[in-house]
Amino acid sequence: MSFPKIEAIRNLSEKELNEEIISVRQKIFELLLKKATKQNIKPHLFTHYKHRLSQLLSMKTEIKIKEQ
């Protein structure tokens, strides 16, 4: 499974971007909860979701800079 490309989120509106950020944070939280309760998880998903979150937050910052 490869990392998602940032080009996939360049066309999102600010509202869609915020919704995606919330969704990814929720997925990370759910993984942490499963890890804490010793359920089966795929550890590589932490890396993928964190990478995706950093892309989304970078794009959000980029949009804020353009607005100024």
TrEMBL record:
Belongs to the universal ribosomal protein uL29 family. It holds the Pfam family Ribosomal_L29. It comes from the Eukaryota. It comes from Galdieria partita. The keyword Ribosomal protein applies. It is found in: Plastid, Chloroplast. One of its GO terms (cellular component) is chloroplast. This is Large ribosomal subunit protein uL29c. One of its GO terms (biological process) is translation. GO terms for molecular function: structural constituent of ribosome. Keywords: Chloroplast, Plastid, Ribonucleoprotein, Ribosomal protein.
